Structure formats: C-alpha cells, structure tokens
Write the structure tokens for this entry.
Amino acid sequence: MDRPLVLLIVDDDQDLVEEVEAAGFTARRVRDPAEVPPAVASATLAFVVMDYDLPGGVGPALVQRLQAMRVPGLRIVALTEVQTAKALLRVFRMGAADAILKPTSGTEIALVLQRLRGSEPDARSPEPAPLVPLRPPSRLNLRVRPKWASPTMDDAPLPILHPRMEEVRAVLVNLETKADAIVQIAESDPTLASRVLRAANSGFFRGTRTYTNLRDACVRLGNRQGAGVLLEAILGEAFRSPDPRFGTLLGVHWGTAVLTARVARWISHSMGARQVEEYYVAALLHNIGEMVMLWRLAASRAGETGSIAVEEAGYWIDEAHEAVGAAYATKQRLPPLVGILAGNHHSARSGEGVYDRGLRVLILGSWCLARQVVGDGVPTRFPLDPEPYLAELRLTPERRDALDRLLLEWRKGEG
C-alpha cells in the first residue's frame, strides 16, 4: 500500500518527522516557507502540515498561496497556538482541513492525518472534472440565455420532491397543525427520522439533554422547526446529481443554504425575534434559485464529459437566480416570505421598510458566514464579507463568540 507523502514545515524537531513516518506516512521536513510552493508543485503530496503561527503573517499567506494552486487531493493541517473559537475558525476559513493546537507531537499529527485520510472519497469513484472555464470569459456567449437559466418553470425539468413534501408544506403554512404531525411524517422514512434526530442533538438546537427517541426529538423541535428540518432533508435529497462534476457543487451549495438557515435562526432567536421559524425557512430557501439552476444545468449536460464552464455558470446564476427562485417558490407554493426573499435579497426592493431590511441583512450576513465555512464552487460578484451585515445587526461580543463556537462545531462535522 502506498505511503502518503507529507510535507512537514517545522523548525528543528526531527522527532515529529520520525513519529509521523512510524505511523505509515512518508514525511519530508522543510524549514523555509518559501520552499513550500515549489515542493508542492513538484511532488504528489497528500498533506502539508505547517506552522500557522510563523512570524510576520507568513502562515496565513502560505495557506492562501497553497489554496490558490488548487492541487488535487492536497490537504493542509495547521499547527497553531490560537485558543479562541473565533481565531480557530479563521484558520479553517483560510482553507485548513484541520488544526492542531501546539504544543503537539508527531503521534497526534499522525492520528489527525489518519482520520483525514479515512474521510477521503473512495478511490474507485470517478474524480470530479476540474472546475475551470472551457473558454476565456471575454469569449463567452452571454447574449443568449440558456434554458437552464430561464425563470420560466416549464422551460426545463425540475427535481421530483419527496411524496411527503405536501404535508411538510402544510405544516409550514398552517399554525393549527396537530401536535404529532412531524412525528408521523418522520416515522414514514428512516432518512427523515435520522435528520430530525441529528438536528435535535446539534449545537444549533440542542437543549440540556441528548435525544435518542424520535418522538422526543420532534417535541424538542416543535412542528414549525421540525418542518424546517424535514424541508432541509427533502430538498437536499432532491437537488442531487449522479454526475460527479455537479454533485459536489450541489452539495456545497445546499450545505451553505442549511448553515445559512441555522445561523439566521440562532441570531434571530438570540435577539428575541418572534418569527424565528419563518426566518429560518426564508434563509434556507432564499438562494433556491441557484440550486434550481445548477440542477437544471446538470440535467442538461447529462452524458457529457469535460470541465464545467464555471465563469459562464457564475454569470447566469448571478444574473437570474433571484427571478428563478421567485418563480420556483410560486410553483411549489412555498410560504410567501420565501418568495419575497428568494426574488429579492441582494438589493433593496421598492418600498423596503425597516423590517424588510433587517431580515435581508440577517440573511445576507448569515449567508456570508456560511459561505466562508462551507465554501462555494461558483464565482460570484456579490460581496462575501459578513462584517458589515453583522455590524448592522449589532451582535454583542458575547453573542458573536457563541456564534463562532457553533460555526466551529459545524466545521468539525458535529453540527
């Protein structure tokens, strides 16, 4: 079996190298950070283990440089002394696959590498095609709108939704739903039941106990909140593609949508908002137009090979996703607030009041945070810095620290 090659960036500790090699890796020590990019470019590396706290900001800059090289399969593990959730989350946002607090040992590093290696995709599965433009942006044909970017819902196919979707939709819009409605829906499908249990035990929803019984978990969430979780599961399952080029993109986009909703719910709840669950669903689906367009694009390219023209895809998604989202919300009879936000969230609509702006700022700030944590595969012209939105929401330092801890929990796969 091949021994994965690890590039260790340390100062003088040869013991780290020996302990990592004893665990089944081939390790090489590099003392000068300037040697790292050429070494990465000239060898097939599985991991770069680096000192993130190098003086002069060299560590973060090096992570960014390695990320920009887009080396297939390369993962960065950061060794750092940061202690707060906010600082540690920043390490992940820069592109690290994992972080290890210093002081550490080669044994601890090897355990992290083994865990990361175990989470790699099955080597037998096809590699996604590179996400690079098929032609330079200046030569893109942007005058003719493709069918997959049309806001007309009959111009291209749409994914088939779960047979219980109608019942979930009824719970979302009907305040008089009977108490065990979510239990009955979740019990009908093991996948839905699993998602409800996982959500009830996540950091964004968890109370003072762990839930192992589905009925108790549904009671903990309540009908409206539980319906939102079921909506996550149903749409996440529907908007998939067997094409590896698009499967990853759709997964990342939906992961961003789910985390956006969780963050928006947490912020609005912490600020004492009354319509928390309505905000949650609106945040989850505010970018549903992007999901519809990507799914349609995947369907239109079925059977084809080659890379995805992400510059062209990004242009049309930026241009049309709000119109597509509003049309999809209408077709699926989603709550009115979803249609409003899906159709207009990047800029103020005519007659926008204080309430409307506050909700839009909440969702955009949550989306920026989620995109930093989850990532995204399609370029966008829209701002990605969450700070102006969070400043307008006036989150206290205590709330921001708590939110960063939850984002870190999500990033580690526990959320």
